[in-house]
Amino acid sequence: MAIQRDEVRRIAELARLEIREEDLDRVAAELSAVLDYAQALKRLDLTGCEALSFAPPAAALRADVPDGRRLTAEQALAMAPETEGGFFVVPPVMEGQDP
Amino acid sequence: MTARELWRLPARALAAAVRAGECTAVEAVSAGWEGPAAIWERDVHAIAHSDTEARVVGAGVTPRGPLAGVPVVVKDNLCTRDYPTTCCSRMLAGYQPPYDATVVRLLREAGGVISGKGNMDEFAMGSSTEFSCYGPTRNPYDLVRVPGGSSGGPAAAVAYGLAPLGLGSDTGGSVRQPAAFCGVIGLKPTYGRLSRYGLVAFASSLDQVGIFGRHTGDVALIYALLAGPDPLDATSRPGPPPDVSGWDGGVEGVRFGWPANLWRAGVDAEVVAGLEEAATWLERAGAQRVPFDFLPGEYAVATYYLVATAEASSNLARFDGVRYGHRAAESPDLHALTTRSRSAGFGAEVQRRILLGTYALSAGYHDEYYLTAQRARARIRREYEAAFSRCDLLLMPVAPTLPFRLGEKLDDPLAMYLSDIFTLGANLAGIPGLSAPVTPAVGGLPRAVQLLGPDDGEGLLLRGARALEVQGERARLERAHEVEFAWPTKR
Amino acid sequence: MAHEAVIGLECHIQLRTRGKMFCGCPAEFGAAPDTNVCPVCLGLPGALPRANHAAVAVALRLGLALGCAIREESVFARKHYFYPDLPKNYQITQYDQPLCVGGSLPVGDAGGELRYELERLHLEEDTGKSSHPVRASDRPFSLLDFNRAGLPLLELVTKPVFREPAECSAFLAALRRLVRWLDVSEGDMEKGQLRCDANVSLRPAGAVALGVKTELKNLNSIRGVEKGLTAEIARQRRLIEAGGAVEQATLLYDVEHDRLAVMRTKEDAHDYRYFPEPDLPVLRVEGPMLEAARAGLPELPWARAARLVEQCGLSARDASVLCEQRELADYFEACAAVADGRLAAHWVMTEVLRVLHGRAGSIGDFAARVPAARLGGLIERVAAKELPGPLAKQVFAWMLEEEGGVDELLARHGVRAMGVATDLRPLVLEVLAEHEAAVAQVLAGNTRTLDFLVGQVMKKSRGQAAPQVVLELLAAELARRAAGEAPPPAPEIGP
Fold first, then answer.
1. Contact (CB<8Å) A87/C34
2. DSSP at C26
3. Catalytic residue IDs of B
């Protein structure tokens, strides 16, 4: 099996998802099944194949002008769970927590 | 004109009637709701959000233009300022965007009216519309079966006549497969031909807005209205889109590839019979069958489930309960807020795919999984390019089975993924694909075939669809359909 | 055993563009919260980025000035981490194919002796800002403002070429000067337009391998960089000398209290899951764009300073001071076109800079009042000895407040510049006539009495005489007397 429960814990943390202890093995099995299937790619001859980045022929860069999409603060905050005085409110951000 | 006369009109005819003053836009939009929806919607559940007022307001605005007054069901992952846009996820319960998707704006500018938001698999992840937080959509032809997914809602709505047109999204087959399961036409354009601005992203390099319709001419019309580069979408394909005005031009001399190795095993006999029928019809119309073998679909499945989930895990990272969307109450700190909000907001399938994608991108596995898959895509694209040096179109199945039963594939995610085996390739390669109905299978279930074309081959695909429509005595099919979904007196 | 410090810097430069990196929102400082936002920079579902041409053009300017190799094709990538000020919970940046590679920055006075080598420059987007008001009654919380989210940043990474904290602060000062010189950024560290992180490690003197490094983040001022690095090097040294080992960590430095605090240790290191941004095509820098950037480059500060040394005979130090700002150098050169270079340099460096510092104004404001040609005219009069120094300074002070040329100003204030020999000669003769005894003393060899005579002339001229001219005239007259010529009759002194 490609993935074990410890690995599921690690990925879940990276993805900010909670997986209950009792579900870890099941999730590991489900993920492994797909990854095992993905081993099929090892049988494919990939000589001369560069990663297909599906970015089309380079689009022109955007000119540095307003594009008419600016929102009012009211619109920006309209769907927010909690706001105050034009700001979004969250539990404390530890100074310099993540980078 | 009465609602009874209006509801089954092709979009073109309906728009003409509105422009000629034979009916109002409000009447045009309401017809489907008064008739078929009144009987069918409760069981089929194609619509996630409807709003009579929004419909009326929308209808009132522009009773003019190529789509004057024409109702369109829009999948719930396309941003609409006057309806919620929830991707049928608890994560976005009640979310109403402050802007319209580009395709929605273009639709409105042409006079089209949003009839309602179509039900879908949550965040477009699924092949059956069983993963919607609002409950499943059922196949109008057989309520114990799925309509396909992830755009099951719009497909079903168009099928039973709520509206003549629908917009969905196709990342791995999510327009073509439900179109096939619901007996309507489903078009996935060439990557970049329809703007993705305002389409809530699932897999950025695979997503495309797609079109549902009951008539080839309608699909061609709306394609022409929506296609073209968008300054708001840097992945727009530059240059003018292919001209599809010749959709009724026939397929005389067109070569269609016949990769029979793909359905030698693992495909329902009924589906294979449908393919044979379509091949015969195309030949009758003057096209030429070119048999050759094609790369088996398992590589596409493997590639897709690494690339799509990787991009999805990234695109869905923005859902954290901070600026919009579900926020878990009483979270002591940021980590808890984010984790609890996401865990409560996302369904199991979405979480599964996020985990898979995160793994494929994570340090130590990136090259083995994600990078390898991106290279495999190049290989798959090469296969299509080689095929199109030998033929103009490829004919193949849409799905390996007829519409399956609700609940049948829920216990085995991999089995669900494998049902996309014939549609994934087009998304990986960026080429256009179309699902066109043929005669129903034994028992009356819808049956269809898939046509694939090279980049910007939409014109040829629509000609092929039209040829099948004509050859298949579509009128006969249409009459059968009318009997099936007749006006309120019958059920 | 002696240990040497090895330091590398990572600087973030906020680019001077009208709009943000991936959307059209204004890049404006100090606006009301969440008023410069749109679906893209707010990370709303369905929004898509588009790269700003101006940001690329500005980045190219800096890359070319630093002598970097510019990649014809560079790639945007997603860098993933969850943080509330990052709207998409990934940052669009550049990873293994950055826009610029290599390059170097000369530091020090004109001459380009010290060049610090760079690793790379790349484009990325800025994050929003969080603030943490403290209110006793409420539960703790933070506030987020996304005006800054999406602003264009250029990240500059040096090679680990620094050995002393002072080198780093000098580098940062030179970088700040350069980004302002090129109009790449306002470079105000207090406004966060120029930010600096440092990586520092110690190794035995003479060793080649690098030691374990720690990262010092968000050093918000040039002084903070130097002090922070000094503190961290001292900490690592103490640790090693006590027999311990340095652990990889990220630290914050509090410049107020001269204190280091560990933010994160190695175990919490990130897995950023980089992959190429699928929403953006490859960034192609085509010939015309590169040529336009190159053509738009002004003479670089170090080249200009070197030229001033050569052309105007300035010292390297003085040239460097004048080249601290491009506008100042422009101003100086315009003055020097009209007047003597060295004198102009002296005037600009003393008088002009004093005014600028005193009034906290810009060169532009100053030049509006006192255009270079005007000042140059004044300086030229001093050079020609027509104006004594003190009087010239007075005229300068008048120039700041009033219109008019030198003569106009003198006339308006009832002062005559008696620098011309014809003006002064009568006074000199008068003094000599009035002080026969003193003349005799000077002729007998008493130089102090000469000073007395000079002073008398100055007094008569009410301080308006140019002393050098007075001295010359006196000397000439005295020489004539010594030679036995008769003094000329004291002429009538005109009005």
1. yes
2. B
3. 75, 150, 174
Q: What percent of chain C is predicted at pLDDT more than 90?
A: 55
Report the mean per-residue pLDDT for chain B. Answer: 93
Taking the CA of residue A55 and the nearest CA in chain B, the distance in Å comes to 6
Residue C84 near chain B (CB below 8 Å): yes
| Domain residue extents for chain B | 3-294+382-484, 298-378
Q: Is A26 a domain residue?
A: yes
Contact call for B358 and A11, based on CB within 8 A = yes
CA distance A46 to chain C (A): 20
Confidence class for position C394, pLDDT limits 50, 70, 90: confident
Average pLDDT, integer, range B72-101: 97
Cβ of A61 within 8 Å of Cβ of C52? The answer is: yes
Give residues 169 to 188 of C whose Cβ lies within 8 Å of A: none
Q: Mapping DSSP to helix (H, G, I), strand (E, B) and coil, where does residue C18 land?
A: coil
Touching chains, B (3+ CB pairs < 8 A): A, C
Do B314 and C43 lie within an 8 Å CB cutoff?
no
Q: Do the beta carbons of residue C218 and residue C39 sit within 8 Å?
A: no
pTM of the model: 0.91
* Rounded CA separation B167/B210 (Å): 6
Contact C48 B196 (CB under 8 A): yes
Facing residue for C141 by CB, picked from A68, A73, A89: A89
Chain B residues 109-168 with a CB less than 8 Å from chain A? none
Is ipTM > 0.90 here? Answer: yes
B3-294+382-484: CATH number: 3.90.1300.10
Q: Kindly report whether the peptide bond that precedes residue B150 is cis, defined as omega within 30 degrees of 0.
A: yes
pLDDT digits (tens, 9 = 90+) for B126-164: 999 999 999 999 999 999 999 999 999 999 999 999 999
Tell me, what's the pLDDT at C256? 86
C-beta atoms surrounding B110 within 10 Å: 21
Residue B115 — φ and ψ, nearest 5°? -80, -25
State whether residue C275 sits within 8 Å of chain B by CB: yes
* pLDDT grade for B12, boundaries at 50, 70 and 90: very high
Short-list C152, C175, C165, CA closest to C253: C165
B79 touches chain C (CB under 8 A): yes
**How many domains would you assign to chain A?**
1
Does residue A20 lie within any of the structural domains? yes
Distances (CA, A) of B86 to B57, B315, B412, C88, C105: 21, 15, 26, 17, 51
